[in-house]
């Protein structure tokens, strides 16, 4: 697949990410841990190499293609619905991408971690035939490996945040239900007869809802809005390099020390626009019942960060991880839209002062 795709263009604004070597992180290499910490606190995005899941990722893309080839009517039987559940199928155009209610252009299949690990038992729901057929062979192994990688990174953050050993791990366990999921995303090509504008949002500007995201893409289109800038920059896809980022939940737990950065997906740049774009994410999210608040009582470092924040109250959300997630999912759904207030009600940590200009720009 990759060999037939046009290269990522050289003439578009691109933001470099630090490259973290997963093998060195596993060995406890101090320099690599410092690099991971720098990436997670300054931008909240980094490349991860030597993660060992490339073959699983290719198989997940096959699973995604098999699923998306099913008739729309069949896929719609497994639709995620309008009540704030994410698991299942999402059709293109089911979500807004901004406050004007412009529609998204991607379809995706979300498979719950709990369902993948308990298969053939359905913890949350069942899936389209082509998805279910790949569960044991493809999805469950990918989910297990992704969970292990995100847990390893989380243990580094736990330590650097000065939290007692196992604090973050206890909020992200396999025996409690969560909104953790694997997502395979397809964006159709921009057609020559009706070319999309290069900044048409396929997925609207957002911060991720959970703790850690482990992303794999082949074509450009992902953009970040780096702190201290006032424009969007592409993230260049690099073969064998996953893109990792911090989400709202981990940012809140850390009192804002770890950064959940704004990002979006637009039309792939240049000649890449004419191609189907596939991406795959594993999202680690906290246990459903975890209260979403800074872990200040467990760490003086987190407590100091909260005390120094312009508005310490933002770190006391008053809701559980599940409630945070359901609110965001539900208010993105175009069927639930009453006006710009619905989009605003879907926002997470984007409202923080640094990120506000980007939200206004789009
Ligand atoms: O497709 C991508 O490159 C990013 C997807 C993304 O940001 C998401 O699904 O949250
Ligand atoms: Fe995202």
TrEMBL record:
One of its GO terms (molecular function) is metal ion binding. Residues 175-286 form the Fe2OG dioxygenase domain. Gene3D superfamilies: B-lactam Antibiotic, Isopenicillin N Synthase, Chain. Keywords: Iron, Metal-binding, Oxidoreductase. It holds the Pfam family DIOX_N. PROSITE patterns: FE2OG_OXY (PS51471). Transmembrane segments: none annotated. InterPro entries: DIOX_N, IPNS-like_FE2OG_OXY, IPNS-like_sf, Iron_ascorbate_oxido_reductase, Oxoglu/Fe-dep_dioxygenase_dom. It comes from the Eukaryota. Residues 335-362 are annotated as: Disordered. Belongs to the iron/ascorbate-dependent oxidoreductase family. This is Clavaminate synthase-like protein. It comes from Phanerochaete sordida.
